[in-house]
Write a structure and sequence with these properties.
single chain; 8-stranded antiparallel sheet; globular; 37% helix; Rossmann fold; 3 domains; alpha/beta; Glutamine Phosphoribosylpyrophosphate, subunit 1, domain 1; 24 strands; binds 6-O-phosphono-beta-D-glucopyranose; 6-stranded antiparallel sheet
Length: 606
């Protein structure tokens, strides 16, 4: 997906626009561009590469303006080239437009425009918007009418911002499925893909809904319904985050900062208001079939929750990757659709949610971003309170969601009388001890993990093995390694190894095994079989385990011994190791940690 930022004010806004689009870079950073209006003339600058590099290379800040829009792109249609970079301008140079989403009917629109003599300079879907605006303006001589005519013609998903030399003090914007919100400042108004576009300048946001458009000028704004063209009264959403928490705070990378924030975010998750959780537990209890969804990391959060609900509450809730939901799930009004989403804007999860709602299902979610589309669409939402997660790679948000889901499973078990209040309180105490234990590991073990990761940073293929609830931990840890270090890592259930994958074990395939505490007897012994199978073929095994016994080189090539913890929280500790191992491998390989190639923080397109 992409980032949109726009501002119109009393004074020069170039610097604010730069900050806004830089704060949105985690949404996509293949290329970026800016459109400014000066003395009623449109100025366009755009190029491939990141925001800082672009602004420096083109000395963009030399151009003063009181109105502008900017865009940072994650390529969907068309390669990463200067021509495919937003903003796009009309042929007559009077309109500049930026867009996040996919115009699904752009091909016939483009063909018709070409027939009418319009020349295209890009492979993108977005460019049709600029030419349609010029075409319709010629008929109506009215920007708003041209804007509406264009919006009513296009299909698909969009967040659009537009400026025109015909109305040099107004920004037009519109939303359908892709996120877009306004920032309401004194004598300055902003538009952005999310709060980060203007969080440094105002905490008053107006979140646009699908089918709404807005017209901003420095001292006023109006939101209208696209169909009725009637003005819509919208509430002001107060942003709770402060801009400092969105900064790196002295860490070399957001990823490390957010890993180190986990003790705090787990505490936040454990301090969530009880009644909100109880209402969701009631939904699980009332529903005949419940589904757990997410995609990418949040799919592994859902998979982790499947094991926890099964083990604690004796309930089997299938976990499904959001993109597979419609092909797989049988949904009706007795169903519960529960999803995890950091951004609350992921297209695949949002689409699955809308499908579930269409079928009459109850819906709930655990989400990190307040005011996000998923948070506002579900019947019940848990705002997990992890604070802004800027790194494209999810760490603290995912771990906090796992804690929230563990508490939900404990509450459901208690409600069903599968566990006593005493056991519930013991589990809660174990969770409450987790922040300190993780803090200890971060303080005392990260150096060792760093050295280990550096030593083996040349490994090109990893198998990540886990049994039971450690299987999603293995999957998520392997995903970290792929995402941030670009190293192949395959997460796998430990028992699966002997059914084929064992054939791969040789000098250039190493294994990491997430070993449960010995008191988790069945899982521990089953996991040790996997270790033995690999060692019997002289395969390299890094054992991450809890056994006090000293170095056991018969068993492990390398090992990392963790402090003793109850079986309930052991998998969560293991995940922190998986996060750190991937992070330090990536720093050894000099990767772009917070903005890995080809990725985006939340993919809001199909
Ligand atoms: C991917 C992100 O694009 O989307 C992952 O790179 C994330 O980090 C996944 O897990 C799902 O995003 P969200 O916001 O729905 O949790």
């Amino acid at each position: 997906m992409c980032g949109i930022s726009g501002a119109v004010g009393l004074k020069n806004i170039s610097e604010l626009l730069f900050e806004g689009i830089r704060n949105l870079e985690y949404r996509g950073y293949d290329s970026c561009g800016v459109a400014l209006i000066n003395k009623s003339r449109l100025l366009i600058k755009k190029d491939i590469g990141g925001v800082e590099e672009f602004y420096r290379k083109h000395n963009v800040l030399q151009h003063k303006s009181k109105i502008g829009i900017a865009h940072t792109r994650w390529a969907t249609h068309g390669k990463v080239t200067q021509e495919n970079t937003h903003p796009f301008t009309s042929r007559d140079g009077n309109f500049a437009v930026v867009h996040n989403g996919i115009i699904s009917n752009y091909r016939p629109l483009k063909a018709q425009l070409q027939k009418e003599g319009f020349k295209f300079s890009s492979e993108t879907d977005t460019e049709v918007l600029a030419h349609l605006l010029e075409k319709f303006y010629k008929r109506s001589r009215n920007v708003e009418k041209a804007f509406l005519k264009m919006l009513n013609l296009i299909e698909g998903t969009y967040a659009i911002a537009l400026i025109s030399s015909y109305l040099p003090e107004q920004i037009f914007c519109a939303k359908k499925e892709s996120p877009l919100m306004l920032g309401i400042g004194d004598e300055i108004k902003f538009v952005g893909s999310d709060f980060n576009a203007f969080i440094d300048h105002t905490k008053n946001a107006v979140i646009l809904d699908d089918g709404e458009y807005a017209i901003l000028s420095r001292d006023t704004y109006v939101v209208k319904d696209l169909l009725s063209k009637e003005e819509v009264t919208k509430p002001i959403t107060k942003i709770e985050w402060d801009s400092e928490t969105s900064k790196k705070g002295g860490y070399p990378h957001y990823m490390l900062k957010e890993i180190y924030e986990q003790p705090q975010t787990i505490s936040n998750a454990l301090d969530l208001e009880e009644s909100g959780l109880d209402e969701i537990v009631d939904l699980f209890a009332e529903s005949e079939n419940s589904y757990l969804l997410g995609v990418g990391t949040t799919f592994y959060v859902a998979k982790y929750a499947k094991y926890v609900f099964s083990k604690l509450a004796q309930e089997f809730f299938p976990s499904i990757s959001s993109d597979e939901f419609m092909a797989l799930a049988i949904v009706n009004k007795e169903s519960l659709f529960f999803c995890a989403s950091q951004s609350g804007e992921t297209f695949d999860t949002l689409s699955a949610l809308k499908h579930a709602k269409l079928k009459g299902a109850r819906t709930a979610a655990v989400v990190n971003v307040m005011g996000s589309s998923i948070a506002r669409l579900v019947d019940k939402v848990v705002l997990q309170g992890s604070g802004p997660e800027i790194c494209v790679i999810s760490t603290k948000a995912a771990l906090s969601q796992m804690v929230v889901l563990t508490v939900l499973a404990m509450k459901l078990a208690l409600k069903k009388k599968v566990i006593t209040r005493k056991i519930y309180n013991q589990h809660l105490q174990s969770l409450r001890e987790l922040p300190e234990i993780i803090q200890g590991i971060l303080n005392e073990r990260s150096g060792f993990i760093h050295r280990l990761a550096h030593k083996y940073s040349g490994t090109r293929n990893w198998l990540y093995l886990g049994r039971g609830v450690y299987y999603p931990i293995a999957l998520e840890s392997a995903l970290k390694m792929k995402e941030v270090a670009y190293v192949h890592a395959e997460g796998m259930p430990g028992g699966f190894l002997k059914h084929g994958t064992l054939a791969m074990i040789d000098d250039d395939v190493s294994s990491i095994v997430f070993v449960p505490p010995p008191e988790d007897k069945v899982l521990y012994e089953a996991t040790m079989h996997s270790v033995e199978e690999i060692r019997a073929r002289s395969g390299f095994v890094l054992g991450i385990h809890f056994t006090e016994q000293g170095k056991n080189s018969d068993l492990y090539s390398e090992e990392l011994i963790l402090p003793k913890v109850p079986p309930l929280t052991a998998p969560l500790i293991q995940l922190v190791i998986g996060q750190l191992f991937a992070y330090f491998t990536a720093t050894s390989l000099k990767r772009n940690i917070d903005k890995p190639r080809s990725l985006a923080k939340s993919v809001t397109v199909a």
